[in-house]
Amino acid sequence: MSLIPVIRKTNDEAKIAEKTIRKGHTEVIAMFDLEANKAIALRLVEVFNGRRLDLLEDVLHPEFRERGLSAFPPAGTEVGSGARRKLYEMFYQAIPDARAEVLDVVAEGDKVVLADRFGGTHRGEFLGRPGTGNHIEWIAIHIYTIRDGKVIEDAVMTDAFAMVQQLGLAPSLTKAE
Fold it and tell me: Which domains does the chain have, with CATH numbers?
């Protein structure tokens, strides 16, 4: 199977990606609206920042799943918006003023890669550590897969080491002077 990405503009100037997938002698053309896919991923950040958990089903596909190496591994094999709801509720309890700041977003085909910075004041239990009152922040990189206008997968890598250092659960790598 070979993938050949082609970028072109449509009449409304939206960026569209075409992927030609060769399976034996059959070619299948899949079209993706890159700007629309970016908007879907960015909408998930807006839902988080706005504490609008009631909108998760509008953004997440019914078969949504989380995967990846993270300090927040999926609690099980739960499919749908419930897994993300639990994660967000945990953040809101531990870091009531938590915010995500988008640093970069790139789209290709049905994937959107989004780098963001999470941060806020650690007030409740987080990674087994009671609230400290300290500001904590870390970077996460998400690879979202978009299907049917919704996020079906979030493969995420978080800077877990930065989190545990800021919580005092791991030593600092900087030397005291």
Answer: 3-166 (3.10.450.50)
